[in-house]
Design a protein that fits this description.
Helix 11 packs across helix 12, helix 13 packs across helix 15 and helix 14 crosses helix 16. 48% of the residues lie in helices and 11% in strands. Strand 4 and strand 5 form a beta hairpin. It is elongated, with a radius of gyration of 27 Å. Among the domains are: 140 residues, Beta Polymerase, domain 2, CATH 3.30.460.10; 58 residues. It is built from 19 helices and eleven strands. It binds cytidine-5'-triphosphate. The site of cytidine-5'-triphosphate has 12 residues, from helix 7.
Length: 393
């Protein structure tokens, strides 16, 4: 029988429910990840206990999704979602069931889940409960809907993006019938909120399999956001630093340059990326730097900031194959003065030396920074004071 070493707070929670007569399992993503020998991000618990029972047995519990039978309990400082076995009712909006009906056993509960690899439960007493051969699909590396794919996608159209997301993050193939159903129901994706699409897209952008992102776009799943097709060069996004801001900005600006979308910043904003990422994108669209010239890189960092220059360098890398981000990192880590805050003189110092308060001080500091970018050895308070005196004359 399969054994899992669960964290103590999870075991303790399951024991409490079981000792009160309720059948209880870990289920979904955590079982999938344990079987793949990955560390689960969180543990979801499914139980025959009704929400009111869960609340009774766990004093620090929060009814986070009572309508769906979910209660979040805090055990030893860890939040745990406990959901009563359920079988979902009719979905008229393709997002949430009109009503949730509690089920009497785990089999009913597993039937309503999206993919076979996510429809496995486990308990210490019974071991794995795997009615849809999810373990088999895990070993064959296949994403397959539980039962009839059109029904699963009809219930929640976000599952279409989830299929491609799991394919990208796990490196699995999507089974043909599941692909066909997704294509048939792709228009329903329009009803899914941009926040939910955003969360899936971020996970794909950070995955190793960017070819899955290409496939997702080329199949028209992001058409609502104005994205119909995309250049093949996008695959090289996987060579770019695995950082969400850098990858999202690079992705959007490249799409704009290839005329796949109209504007990178508007595209990211529609997809609910945060204000910082959107304004960085607006800036990066305008940056022109010759990455062969170290001085230009320094000047760029001083003018636009390191993040913006790294994004511009990543775009250059994807277009030319020249590893400009590495050049930028070497310069940024050299310890040389590249920003006003690294200058060995401040506005206050200048005022103490008799320079008048006001706009002029800012202009002077920028001139000093420009000088230090090409003469790093001059970044010393005394030298900078003398230089400032000469610049004033
Ligand atoms: N689930 C589902 N349909 C959805 C979302 C979730 O059937 N649209 C089920 C799946 O069984 C899934 C479980 O609920 O495994 C938990 O969902 P979630 O926490 O969103 O995803 P995980 O599978 O845990 O994966 P990850 O944490 O990596 O996102």
């Amino acid at each position: 029988m399969t054994e899992f070493a669960l964290p103590q707070y999870v075991r303790q929670t399951i024991n409490k429910l079981e000792s009160n007569g309720f059948c209880t399992y870990i289920v979904g993503g955590c079982v999938r990840d344990l079987l793949l020998k990955r560390k689960p991000l969180d543990y979801d618990i499914a139980t025959s206990a009704l929400p009111e029972n869960i609340i009774r047995y766990f004093p620090s519990s929060y009814p986070t999704g009572l309508k769906h039978g979910t209660v979040t309990v805090i055990v030893k400082g860890h939040p745990l979602e406990i959901t009563t076995f359920r079988t979902d009712g009719i979905y008229s909006d393709g997002r949430r069931p009109d009503q949730v009906v509690f089920a009497s056993d785990i089999l009913e509960d597993l039937k309503r889940r999206d993919f076979t690899i996510n429809a496995i439960a486990w308990s210490e007493k019974e071991g794995l409960i795997d009615p849809f051969c999810g373990c088999d699909d895990l070993s064959k590396k296949i994403i397959r809907c539980v039962g009839e794919p059109t029904e699963r996608f009809f219930e929640d159209s976000l599952r279409i993006l989830r299929a491609w997301r799991f394919s990208a993050t796990l490196g699995f193939n999507i089974e043909q019938k599941t692909v066909e159903a997704a294509l048939k129901l792709k228009d329903r994706l329009g009803a899914v909120s941009a926040e939910r699409v955003h969360s899936e897209l971020c996970k794909i952008l950070l995955s190793k399999h960017l070819e899955i992102l290409l496939d997702l776009i080329n199949k028209g799943f992001l058409i609502k956001y104005g994205l119909k097709n995309t250049p093949n060069t996008l695959i090289s996004l996987s060579k770019i630093e695995n950082d969400l801001i850098i990858r999202s900005v690079t992705f959007a600006v490249l799409l704009e340059q290839n005329k796949s979308i109209e504007r990178a910043d508007t595209f990211l904003s529609l997809l609910r990326f945060d204000k910082r990422t959107v304004s960085l994108t607006r800036l990066v669209r305008k940056i022109k730097i010759s990455f062969e010239v170290p001085f230009e890189i320094k000047l760029g960092i001083a003018k636009y900031g390191l993040d913006a220059v790294l994004c511009a360098a990543s775009i250059f890398f994807m277009e030319t194959g020249v590893n400009a981000p590495q050049k930028v990192r070497v310069i940024a880590n050299s310890g040389e003065c590249l920003t006003l805050s690294q200058l060995q003189i401040t506005g206050d110092d200048l005022m103490q030396k008799g320079f008048p308060e006001g706009r002029e001080i800012g202009i002077l500091l920028n001139k000093l920074l420009l000088h230090v970018l090409s003469h790093p050895e001059d970044n010393q308070t005394e030298k900078l004071t003398n230089l400032a005196e000469n610049m004033k004359k």
